[in-house]
């Protein structure tokens, strides 16, 4: 026996939400491509006229198999060759220079 409140979005509406999310936040007039709970909440309201709490939006996204977005925090000027050289040469030398702890 299933208890609880009936779902407010049916399968077709959830697919429409998924399609809207995949279009990207910029396609829905948000300032950046990052989806926040508030933005997803706004999108749901625009598409289906239903307003959910941010907690419910979080649970809905998890039920759809979608997780949190983590934007890459890399400088535009990042030099991949220099990073690789540092990881191969500088970092191992630093690790070797750390004295063992007096445990």
Describe the structure.
By secondary structure, the protein is mostly helical. The protein is 51% helix and 0% strand. The chain has helices at residues 11-23, 37-48, 54-63, 80-97. The chain is elongated. The model has no long low-confidence stretch (mean pLDDT 83).
How would you summarize what this structure contains?
The protein is mainly alpha-helical. The chain contains four helices and no strands. It has helices spanning 11-23, 37-48, 54-63, 80-97.
The unreliable regions are: none
Rg, alpha carbons: 22 Å
Please tally the helical runs, counting DSSP H or I stretches of 4 or more residues. Answer: 4
| Percent in helix | 40-55%
Global outline = elongated
State the end-to-end distance. 57 Å
Class per helix and strand makeup: mainly alpha
Mean residue pLDDT? 83
Strand/helix succession: HHHH
Provide the β-strand percentage band. under 5%
**Main β sheet profile:** none
Number of strands: 0
Question: Notable features of this structure?
Answer:
103 residues, mainly alpha, 51% helix, elongated
Q: What's the arrangement of secondary structure elements?
A:
Elements: H1 11-23, H2 37-48, H3 54-63, H4 80-97
